[in-house]
Design brief:
The chain is mainly beta. It is built from 2 helices and 22 strands.
Length: 542
């Protein structure tokens, strides 16, 4: 293998184009007959995209017609089902429809491409107003070995993320060229713990290496599928049992990977992320229970980019999640988390919780109504020696707000939502959300260049320590149309209008004006109302 950091930019481009072009031609030819299988493909609207769910993602075709004995039940909660393992674009080579590969049941392979165009008008994440029209490209490839060398298995997932036509400084949320997000070896003992009461194998699985995955409701560990770049870690993961069993225990210890944009990524040696997650599915027709403990321990990095990087920190978080259905009346998904420890000289004391209740009505269009409330504490007083700001660890951001203005910190967010699925190919979503700060003396995370990245320093315009800017940030109307063009191609059209209220308006007004001062950085004074339109195409090449 060639270390991507040692290859010139021109060589990388040439190599990448040759590989992609030759792979696409072979794969498209081999799968030309698969367009007739549309009616057998289902749409999974609980994820951020319409599903591309390969038939062999969880089981081989030989097992596809067997009655399921699995205890696992998916939640109907919005975007809270974690990505499958391996990811949904991955298939066994034996199931791609090529006769000569029928015996290759031990080889997992996948190729995926995503293009997204965005139009943002007066984006309040930026100090500069006006329009932006970025184009995001993301390529992924997976290869993995299972069964044939058991108990040893391995997998590698390559990703290339780029952005074009972006008028702002490019950050590690948009670009990460030629890198690996999964590269691990695994010991898999198929019946390490015998079998469960339904005759299903209860394995022991131990992975070491680079890991990108999701678990629980994705609020603390997530690949972050919406974003153009992906969260990844280096360390170990030990699983006792598996998803199909009545119980499972997931233990992990790992360091987050620093996304270096144009160099090969490196682990953050100053931060460890660790925990234990339990899954109890014995009564999963009614309730699935996930008790867990997660923690972070950080040693101060004197050269850290943000003030938080330069602190000694230790956060411990016990929590739980429960989801299920109350017969045909309603479904639910709830969680609670408490954080203790210290952040520099401050004592950490924070909490967060979510409650979602919904109902899917008996109608051919499968209408679903949902009510949601999410809370995450903010720092009550910047001078009391205590930090009350809830830490989302490495969770996803998009379902909190499609335009990425808020995340799971210092937030009170009630929402109402409606979904319609007229056909298996077509889905509609409509959401109305209100955003309040849990503490008006703490920050609103991602406005006025306040994002945490390794490119743009935070000017501090997104916080009013006096609390005089108020706590009502704004409200938003979000809509999406999802269409499955073919079994391997999905398209999404989305739009969000954000209406600013007191906090956002007052922070814009209080920041140095670019029109009247020569201070830098400065803010283009505007109403705070924004528009966000995007069109996305996701293609699975197998």
């Amino acid at each position: 293998m060639v270390n991507p950091s040692q290859v010139s930019a021109d060589d990388k481009v040439a190599m990448g184009e040759e590989v992609v072009q030759s792979s696409v031609v072979r794969i498209v030819q081999a799968n030309s007959t698969e367009s007739k299988k549309m009616e057998s493909e289902s749409v999974d609207r609980s994820k951020g995209l319409p599903a591309i769910v390969p038939e062999a993602n969880k089981q081989s075709k030989a097992d596809a017609n067997k009655p399921s004995t699995s205890y696992y039940r998916r939640t109907d909660g919005y975007a809270t089902n974690p990505e499958s393992d391996p990811p949904r674009y991955v298939r066994r080579l034996s199931d791609i429809g090529v006769e000569r590969f029928k015996e290759f049941t031990w080889l997992d392979i996948g190729f995926e491409h995503r293009t997204r165009y965005e139009w943002r008008n007066n984006d309040v994440r930026r100090v500069e107003g006006g329009e932006d029209n970025p184009i995001f490209l993301r390529h992924r490839a997976w290869i993995g070995i299972r069964d044939i060398l058991d108990p040893f298995r391995f997998a590698v997932e390559f990703q290339d993320s780029r952005v074009y036509n972006n008028k702002h400084a490019i950050t590690d949320q948009e670009r990460n060229e030629y890198d690996l997000i999964n590269a691990y070896g695994e010991l898999y003992f198929k019946k390490g713990l015998g079998v469960d009461d339904r005759g299903q194998d209860r394995p022991i699985r131990f992975r070491v290496g680079r890991l990108a995955y999701e678990t629980t409701d994705r609020r603390f560990i997530a690949r972050n599928e919406w974003r153009n770049t992906t969260n990844s870690f280096e360390g170990f993961r030990l699983n006792l049992g598996r998803e199909a069993n009545a119980w499972e225990l997931d233990l992990f210890g790992m360091q987050p990977v620093r996304r270096l944009q144009t160099k090969f990524d490196e682990a953050n040696d100053h931060l460890w992320f660790f925990g234990a997650i339990g899954h109890w599915r014995k009564w999963s027709d009614f309730i699935t229970i996930q008790p867990y403990y997660m923690g972070q321990k950080q040693t101060a990095d004197p050269t850290g980019f943000t003030a938080t990087n330069r602190l000694d920190r230790e956060i411990h978080m016990p929590g739980f999640r429960a989801y299920g259905k109350a017969g045909n009346l309603f479904d639910y998904d709830v969680s609670y988390n408490h954080q203790l420890g210290f952040s520099g000289p401050l004592r950490q004391d924070a909490q967060g919780y979510t409650v979602e209740v919904g109902r899917t009505f008996n109608h051919p269009w499968k209408p679903r109504l949902m009510g949601f409330y999410g809370y995450a504490s903010g720092d009550k007083d910047p001078n009391d020696g205590e930090d009350n700001r809830f830490d989302r660890f490495f969770g996803f951001a998009r379902p909190w707000s499609a335009d990425h203005y808020v995340i799971y910190e210092n937030l009170k967010a009630p929402k109402i939502r409606m979904d319609l699925q007229p056909t298996q190919k077509l889905g509609f979503e409509l959401t109305y959300a209100w955003y309040f700060l849990a503490s008006k003396r703490d920050r609103m995370f991602d406005i006025l260049n306040g994002n945490i990245s390794n490119t743009e320093p935070d000017p501090g315009f997104n916080r009013d320590r006096t609390g005089q800017s108020g706590d009502f940030a704004g409200h938003a109307l979000e809509g999406r149309i999802r269409y499955q063009v073919t079994p391997r191609i999905n398209a999404i059209l989305g739009y969000t209008h954000f209406t600013a209220e007191d906090f956002v308006k007052n922070r814009i007004a209080a920041s140095p004006s670019c029109a009247s001062t020569h201070a830098h950085p400065c803010v283009d004074h505007r109403s705070g109302n924004t528009d966000f339109l995007y069109f996305e195409v996701l293609i699975s090449l197998l």
